Amino acid sequence: MKGKIAFVLGAAVGYVLGTRAGRERYEQIKRGAQTVWNTEPVQRGVGVVRTAAQGRVDELKDSVVRAGKGAYAALTRDRDGAQPAAPAPAARSAAARPAPGSQTEPVAPANTDGTD
């Protein structure tokens, strides 16, 4: 809470002092900031940050394109009525076999489509 009060108080003081200083002081501060911005060390830093950001943007773009292609492929498969891939033959035969030591017969899967 104290931090918020200090922030608001600082903003109010800055506003009052800024309005008293007027346009001339604003222009002076603006020229000083532009002078610093245009120095060689600052511009080198800007170039480094710009290059790093562009690399991350390119990575993000590639990820979004891959995700979009995957989603499109999934939607078109579903729309065309394609069935998901069947389990491997070894998995099906293992499911149909009784567990070792079991005396029960394998049970056929239940009919779930509503027809008998």
Provide structural commentary.
The structure is a single chain. 72% of the residues lie in helices and 0% in strands. The chain starts with a helix and ends in a 20-residue tail after the last helix.
Short précis:
The protein is mainly alpha-helical. The protein is 72% helix and 0% strand.
Please specify the SSE layout and strand pairing.
Blueprint: H1 2-37, H2 40-79, H3 89-96
List keywords for this structure.
116 residues; mainly alpha; 72% helix; elongated; YtxH-like protein
Q: If you compute it from the alpha carbons, what radius of gyration comes out, rounded to the nearest whole angstrom? A: 34 Å
Low-pLDDT stretches: 91-96
Helix content: over 70%
Structural class, judged by helices and strands? mainly alpha
Largest sheet: none
Number of strands: 0
Figure out the total of helices: 3
What is the ordering of alpha helices and beta strands?
A: HHH
- What's the overall average pLDDT, rounded? 76
- Give the DSSP E fraction (strand runs of 2 or more residues): under 5%
Distance N to C terminus: 70 Å
Backbone shape? elongated
Assembly state of the chains shown: single chain
Organism: Leucobacter luti
Biased composition (Low complexity): 82-103
Protein name: YtxH-like protein
Region (Disordered): 75-116
